[in-house]
């Protein structure tokens, strides 16, 4: 059968018809909001590169988390800006004074039912801004993956002790997921799930985040450990390895320029929960376009998040979440 008997526009004629045949719907329960926690007191710094986002001190972050929970947000991903940076990022395993450990305790108290996920990495905590321990190879400073694994084990055990409900390793360190699973299991936290940044690309779309989390590399870039933008097959190997090492959720990052990777991962691993990170640059592009009046912010946000979901995700990490709920953008 074909035109004129078939007219696909018939089912587009009204809101009722369109919503009846809609294939993809966004659910607030599938969305996670990132939060930036600053070590100092009384901090509420607007992040210039990410309009509408803030660095918050521990007490303000706790208060904010409670507000987010009341708005309907059920889960947050925590990033920390520590007091002191050193070559190994030891703030990440400081049980008492680590910025994330302090944040976990305060947020648990303020919003007991909020799911607290920690970003597990070192770039915000090292003075060189790279995602692990450095070593020299042929006179050049490079990441020492194996030495970094030992510190990842310390970091996740400390996060779990302080109340992390889930950990999310983002450093693209070989073997991280297996090491983290063992570390959690060995310290009494076998119930804590891992959301692995499995296929994380060396992307320019992280630009605004570097400002937000103060984790820009002091020299060079991250191309020797994050994935080459040009590769798709390799992403499936990364995802497959992380599943084999015990990842409970796998993530593709960034989202919008990598919808093909999301689709590939969904098709190859149909039963595995799949997340995508709608990253800082993707957020700021929308904010700037809306600010200048080039397009409607609600429509842009819903189009982007619907596209990511349509590609095959179950979960999206997005800085837009507070705006979505505050303005009721999912209500109709
Ligand atoms: C690493 C980390 C980064 C992001 C999340 N975790 C920065 C990087 O890899 O350079 C980027 C998130 C974003 O751009 O929104 N700790």
Give your account of this protein's structure.
- The protein has 332 residues and is an alpha/beta fold.
- The chain has a single domain, classed as TIM Barrel.
- It has helices at 15-21, 58-71, 99-110, 145-162, 176-186, 207-213, 233-244, 259-268, 280-291, 297-311, 321-326; strands at 31-38, 44-46, 54-57, 75-81, 115-120, 134-137, 140-143, 166-169, 195-200, 249-253, 274-278, 315-318.
- Strands 1, 2, 3, 4, 5, 8, 9, 10, 11 and 12 form a ten-stranded mixed beta sheet that branches. A two-stranded antiparallel ribbon has the order 6-7.
- A hairpin with a 7-residue loop joins strand 2 (44-46) and strand 3.
- Helix 2 crosses helix 3 (99-110), helix 3 packs parallel to helix 4 and helix 4 (145-162) packs across helix 5.
- The longest helix is centred in the middle third of the chain and has 18 residues, at 145-162.
- The structure holds ligand PBG.
